[in-house]
Write a structure and sequence with these properties.
- By secondary structure, the protein is α+β, with helices and mostly antiparallel strands.
- Helix content is 38%, strand content 20%.
- The protein folds into 4 domains: 2-97, Uridine Diphospho-n-acetylenolpyruvylglucosamine Reductase, domain 2 (2-Layer Sandwich), CATH 3.30.43.10; 104-222, 2-Layer Sandwich (Uridine Diphospho-n-acetylenolpyruvylglucosamine Reductase, domain 3); 226-341, Alpha-Beta Plaits, CATH 3.30.70.2190; 349-436, 2-Layer Sandwich (Alpha-Beta Plaits), CATH 3.30.70.2740.
- The protein has 17 helices and 18 strands.
- The chain is globular and about 75 Å long.
- The two termini are 29 Å apart.
- The relative contact order is 0.11.
Length: 481
C-alpha cells in the first residue's frame, strides 16, 4: 500500500508540473461536481482532475499515466446517458476533462467543413456555423452542454438522423491520442482514401476506450432557407408509420425529422411546464412531430407542400388533426415539447430508460408487443415509447409503480425490467443501444446478449490498442466471463 501511495503521490506531482495550476487539481471541492453523472445514477472517486489545454499536453499526460499505471476516464460535457464518463469507486483513475480544448480551429464554408477541438460545445458550434450561413446537421436536447469530443466518442444521434445520419456520417477526419501517448493525426478530409482500414471509424463510438479524441473535422451544410414544422395527432403508432412513409414519399429529401410522442408523454410535459400548451385542441393517442427544411425556396412554399401531404394523409384516415407552425417561434415551441419529455417523465418518479432500436418497419409492432408484456410482468408499471420513429430508434421508458423508492426500485425490479426489455429487443433483431452508447450501464447486458464473434473482435482491438487497459476501464467492452 505504501508503494502505491508513493507512486500516486509522484504522479500527482508530475501531472501538476506538466499541466500547471489550471490544468490539474486533486482538491475534493474541485473534483466533486465531476464525480457523478448528470442524472445522478453513477458516482465514483478520482485521483485528480486533469484539464490539458492542447493535444500535446494530452499526449504528455497519457504518457505519464502509462508510466505510472494510472487509468484515465475521458470526460466532455458530462452529459452522457450511460455512465461512460464517470470513474469507478477505486479512486485510482484521473478524470481527463477536454473542456479547456474548446477552439474552433477553422471553419471553411466553401469546403463545407470545420475543424473543432474536443471541448467545443455543440450549441457554440451551431452558432459559429450559422454566422457563416452554414449549419452542422446534428442536434439533440443536450446541445448546450454536449461537446464535440463526447459526440464523436459516443457516435451520438439526435433528431436529424433520418436524413443526415449519426455522428459517424458527420466526421470527415479525426485527431486522437492513443494509449501510449502517440497522436493519430487524420484530420485531413479526403473524398477517396483506400490505404487500408478506416481507423477514424474505429475510434468513433469507442467511448474513450481506444483513444482520446482531441479534435475532429466535421462536415457543414448550407443553412436552409425554408422550414416547415407540423404537429400531428394520429390514432395509432401503426398509423404514424404509414404517415411517415407517405410524407417521406411526398416530401423527399426535405424531410429531416419524424418524432412520435404518445399522449402520456405529452400530458407529462404539459404538467411539467406551466406555460406549455398542447398544439392541438383535442387529445390524441399518438402525436407526430414532422420537420422539413430545404436550401432553396421559401417558407410558404415548403409549408404548402407539407400541408398538401398532410391533407392527402387525412383523406387516407392516417391522421386526426394537424397544425403547421406559423413561424419559427411556434416551431421551436413544438420542439420544446418533444425535448422536455425526459425531464417531465423523470419528475414523475423512478423509471428505467432504454435507448433501443429495431428495424423501422417493425417498430410499431415491437411497441405494441413489448409494452403490454412489460406491464403484465411487472404490475403497476407503465411503459411509454417516444422518439425517432423515422430511424427506428425509440426511448422505451418504464415508469415505476406509485410509491416506489428511488434508488431501491431501480436496483431491484428495475434491473429485471431492463433485462426483459433487452431480451425482447434482441429477439426482434434490434440493438440495446441506439444512440446513447454502452458506458457502464449496459456493459454487462452487452456481454450477455452480444454476438460472441463481435465481442471477441472488440476485446482483441481493445487489447491491441490499450494493452495496459488504462483507457476508460469498465466501459463499453465486456470482460470475458
Amino acid at each position: 500500500m505504501t508503494d502505491l501511495t508513493d507512486r500516486l503521490d509522484v504522479f500527482r506531482e508530475d501531472a501538476a508540473a506538466l499541466l500547471g495550476e489550471k490544468g490539474f487539481t486533486d482538491l475534493a471541492d474541485d473534483l466533486e461536481p465531476w464525480l457523478t453523472d448528470w442524472r445522478g445514477r453513477y458516482s465514483g472517486r478520482a485521483l485528480g482532475l486533469a484539464a490539458p489545454a492542447s493535444t500535446q499536453q494530452v499526449s504528455e499526460l497519457v504518457k505519464l499515466c502509462a508510466r505510472h499505471g494510472v487509468p484515465i476516464v475521458p470526460q466532455g460535457g458530462n452529459s452522457g446517458m450511460a455512465g461512460g464518463a464517470t470513474p469507478d469507486q477505486s479512486g485510482e483513475a484521473i478524470i481527463l476533462s477536454l473542456r479547456r480544448m474548446n477552439t474552433i480551429r477553422s471553419l471553411d464554408p466553401d469546403a463545407g467543413q470545420a475543424v473543432c477541438e474536443a471541448g467545443v460545445i455543440l450549441q457554440t458550434f451551431h452558432d459559429a456555423a450559422d454566422t457563416a450561413n452554414m449549419r452542422f446537421p446534428l442536434t439533440l436536447g443536450g446541445k448546450g452542454s454536449a461537446t464535440i469530443g463526447g459526440l464523436v466518442s459516443t457516435n451520438a444521434g439526435g433528431t436529424q438522423v433520418l436524413r443526415h445520419g449519426t455522428m459517424r456520417a458527420q466526421v470527415l477526419g479525426i485527431e486522437a491520442v492513443l494509449a501510449d501517448g502517440s497522436v493519430f493525426d487524420a484530420l485531413t478530409a479526403l473524398k477517396k482514401d483506400n490505404r487500408g482500414f478506416d481507423l477514424k471509424q474505429v475510434l468513433i463510438g469507442s467511448e474513450g476506450t481506444l483513444g482520446i479524441v482531441t479534435a475532429a473535422t466535421l462536415r457543414l451544410l448550407p443553412a436552409p432557407r425554408a422550414r416547415a414544422t407540423a404537429w400531428v395527432g394520429v390514432p395509432s403508432i401503426t398509423d404514424a408509420r404509414a404517415l411517415l412513409r407517405r410524407v417521406d414519399r411526398d416530401l423527399g429529401d426535405t424531410l429531416e425529422g419524424f418524432e412520435v410522442v404518445p399522449a402520456h408523454c405529452l400530458d407529462s410535459v404539459l404538467d411539467h411546464l406551466p406555460d406549455a400548451r398542447s398544439p392541438l385542441s383535442q387529445r390524441h393517442a399518438w402525436n407526430a412531430l414532422i420537420e422539413c427544411v430545404c436550401v432553396d425556396g421559401e417558407d410558404t412554399d415548403l409549408r404548402e407542400r407539407l400541408e398538401n401531404a398532410l391533407a392527402e394523409a387525412a383523406e387516407a384516415e392516417l391522421l386526426a388533426d394537424a397544425v403547421i407552425a406559423a413561424n419559427e417561434r411556434q416551431a421551436e415551441d413544438f420542439w420544446m415539447l418533444r425535448d422536455s419529455i425526459s425531464a417531465a417523465e423523470r419528475a414523475l418518479g423512478p423509471a428505467m430508460q432504454h435507448d433501443i432500436s429495431v428495424p423501422v418497419e417493425r417498430m410499431p409492432e415491437f411497441i405494441l408487443a413489448a409494452s403490454p408484456a412489460i406491464e403484465e410482468a411487472h404490475p403497476g408499471t407503465r411503459a411509454v415509447a417516444f422518439g425517432h420513429l423515422g430511424d427506428g430508434n425509440v426511448h422505451f421508458h418504464v415508469l415505476a409503480p406509485n410509491g416506489a423508492v428511488p434508488g431501491e426500485w431501480e436496483e431491484g425490479q428495475g434491473k429485471l425490467i431492463s433485462a426483459q426489455v433487452y431480451d425482447l429487443v434482441t429477439q426482434w433483431g434490434g440493438s440495446i443501444s441506439a444512440e446513447h452508447g454502452i458506458g457502464q450501464m449496459k456493459v454487462a447486458e452487452l456481454g450477455r446478449l452480444g454476438d460472441p464473434v463481435a465481442l471477441a473482435m472488440m476485446r482483441q482491438i481493445k487489447t491491441a490498442l490499450d494493452p495496459q487497459g488504462l483507457l476508460n476501464p469498465g466501459k463499453l467492452v465486456p470482460p470475458i466471463g
